[in-house]
């Protein structure tokens, strides 16, 4: 008889057997110990829930994201890691180096990866997914625009870039279950951080406690499932337990 899967809650780090059923059907166990924890992270988690959970698939671009990205393809707004060195590059440059995508093809892929397009490629199309990553990294920085969805997805893509090679693969279609789980955990953290901006001041203390607990849970997960070097990279990304997350 198969044992019941156990894991740590993506929000608070508590050991639990309660998992997202839709993501389990996609082949990955993502745990939420209670309806409260799942509700806290739902705004962001729902963007990757179910068929987009594993392998990880970013959703299509909103028209605003696509327009902003197309205007910014030649700006040095991309983090690019090569042989341990961090470079600033344009989206077009990264596309050429990573995927052999020309600037003309990148523009076509961004348009094909927009919600309103009539010429749509399968969401799991490898080049399309990479173009969507780059588009979101090229999207104008908030802070905190009208669309919570765009904020979360933009931040998630930028955090992925900061963890490329050392912790996460540069293409998330290549992520194993541990790497995909870490990515989902970061999406939940980004979500809770973003939602906190709109919270009334009387909820700020409780919200801050959740963030501290959540950072601890991510670092604990990384310590178990990744190398010491990767753990250090994640810890650096999270800054410290007492500092706010830099979205």
Topology:
Elements lengths: L6 E2 L6 E2 L4 H5 L9 H11 L17 H9 L6 E5 L2 E5 L1 H9 L3 H10 L13 H13 L9 H16 L13 H20 L7 H22 L2 H10 L10
Antiparallel strand pairs: 1-2, 3-4
Helix pairs in contact: 2-8, 3-6, 4-6, 5-6, 6-7, 7-8, 8-9
In short:
Residues 9-49 form the MYND-type domain. This protein is mainly α and 247 residues long. It has ten helices and four strands; from the N terminus they run ββαααββααααααα.
Please characterize this protein's 3D structure.
The protein is mainly alpha-helical. 51% of the residues lie in helices and 6% in strands. The chain has a two-stranded antiparallel ribbon. A two-stranded antiparallel ribbon has the order 3-4. Helix 5 (103-112) crosses helix 6. It is globular. The termini are far apart. Residues 240-247 have low confidence and may be disordered.
What attributes characterize this protein structure?
single chain; 247 residues; 2 domains; two-stranded antiparallel ribbon; 10 helices; 4 strands; disordered C terminus; zinc
- The share of residues in extended strands comes to 5-15%
Shape assignment:
globular
Helix content: 40-55%
Overall number of structural domains:
2
The biggest sheet, with number of strands, parallel, antiparallel or mixed sense and barrel status, is:
2 strands, antiparallel
What is the residue-averaged pLDDT? 86
- Using the CA coordinates, give the radius of gyration: 18 Å
Protein name: RNA binding protein
InterPro entries: Znf_MYND (IPR002893)
Keywords: Metal-binding, Zinc, Zinc-finger
Domain MYND-type: 9-49
């Amino acid at each position: 008889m198969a044992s019941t899967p156990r894991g740590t809650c993506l929000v608070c780090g508590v050991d639990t057997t309660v998992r997202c059923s839709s993501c389990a059907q996609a082949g990955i166990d993502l745990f939420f110990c209670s309806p409260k924890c799942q509700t806290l992270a739902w705004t962001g988690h729902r963007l990757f829930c179910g068929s987009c959970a594993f392998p990880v698939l970013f959703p299509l671009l909103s028209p605003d994201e696509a327009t902003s990205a197309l205007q910014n393809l030649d700006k040095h707004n991309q983090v690019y890691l090569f042989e341990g060195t961090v470079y600033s590059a344009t989206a077009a440059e990264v596309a050429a180096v990573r995927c052999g995508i020309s600037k003309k093809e990148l523009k076509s892929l961004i348009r094909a990866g927009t919600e309103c397009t009539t010429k749509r490629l399968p969401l799991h199309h490898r080049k399309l997914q990479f173009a969507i990553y780059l588009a979101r990294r090229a999207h104008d920085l908030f802070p905190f625009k009208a669309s919570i969805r765009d904020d979360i997805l933009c931040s998630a893509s930028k955090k992925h870039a900061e963890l490329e090679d050392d912790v996460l693969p540069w293409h998330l279609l290549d992520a194993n279950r541990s790497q995909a789980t870490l990515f989902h955990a970061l999406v939940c953290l980004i979500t809770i951080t973003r939602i906190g901006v709109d919270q009334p001041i009387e909820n700020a203390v409780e919200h801050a406690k959740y963030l501290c607990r959540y950072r601890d849970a991510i670092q604990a997960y990384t310590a178990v499932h990744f190398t010491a070097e990767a753990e250090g990279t994640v810890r650096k990304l999270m800054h410290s337990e007492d500092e706010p997350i830099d979205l």
